[in-house]
Amino acid sequence: MLFKTIINDQVFHVEVDRKRSVARINDEKLKFEIVEHKNGRIILRSGTKLYKFDNISVNGSNVSFAMNGAFFDAKVKDEKDLLLEKLGFENHTENKAGDLRAPMPGKILEIMIQQGDKVSAGQPLIILEAMKMENELKAPAGGEISSLLVNTGENVEKNQHLLVISPSG
Fold first, then answer.
1. Per-domain residue ranges of the chain
2. Minimal CA–CA distance to 121: which of 142, 103, 136, 100?
3. Which of 42, 71, 89, 101 could form a disulfide linkage to 84, CB 3.0–4.6 angstroms apart?
4. Which residues, in sequence order, are CB contacts of 78 under 8 Å at separation 6+?
5. Given the DSSP bridges, would you call strands 161-166 and 62-67 parallel, antiparallel or unpaired?
6. Percent of the chain clearing pLDDT 70 (strictly above)
7. Do residues 77 and 63 make contact, with C-beta atoms less than 8 angstroms apart?
8. Is 103 exposed, middle or buried, given 0-12, 13-18 or 19+ CB atoms closer than 10 A?
9. b (16+ CB within 10 A) / e for 125-150
10. Which residues are bridge partners to 74 per DSSP?
11. If you average pLDDT over residues 55-83, what whole number do you get?
12. % of the chain surpassing 90 pLDDT
């Protein structure tokens, strides 16, 4: 799989072959091993280096995580996003300001807000369980919850609308 990842204005071109446990980051080839824990922690080992990933939150193409205790925000584009970008098209599955969509298929474990609540950008709103991991979905924009489109326990598909935030004012 191909990815383009931007962290702190630094661009990483990543190609991952999980079957062979090999990745190419920019022009550097790395062998790796991944261990996923039930608490959501991911341990990645490459050679003698060990990386611990915690507090992983995915919202569209935006990924927040802690690596060895340091916090990072990344923008990740997958093969589909890269192809659309190369062809000069916008990816319409990206979150529009005020819309929160499911970044992957999963089950709604918790809804931390109600319709009519005022929220700020980045505020945790929903816990989505996907691939045995809990993902904290955050507000893409500040405002008021004008539509809550899912319920706790409901299964959702990738890119399904979960809620709408209208600007306050």
1. 2-83, 96-166
2. 142
3. 89
4. 1, 2, 3
5. unpaired
6. 93
7. no
8. buried
9. bbbbebeebbbbbbbbbbbbbeebeb
10. 7, 63
11. 88
12. 48
User: Which amino acid belongs to residue 158?
Assistant: K
Rounded mean pLDDT of the chain?
Answer: 87
Q: Which amino acid is present at 68?
A: N
Place of tokens 């919202």: 59
Beta strand pairing call for 133-138 and 124-130: antiparallel
The more confident residue out of 93 and 150 is 150
CATH 2.60.120.1130 fits 96-166, yes or no: no
Please state whether 41 falls in left (phi above 0), alpha (psi between -120 and 50) or beta.
beta
Q: Does the pLDDT value for residue 147 go beyond 80?
A: yes
112, 125 in Cβ contact below 8 A? yes
For residue 35 the two structure tokens come to 């261990």
Nearest one of 114, 120, 139, 136 to 65, comparing CA atoms: 136
First to last CA, the chain: 43
Beta strands 28-31 and 33-36, pairing class: unpaired
Separation between Cα atoms, residue 21 and residue 48, nearest integer Å: 15
pLDDT value at residue 85: 74
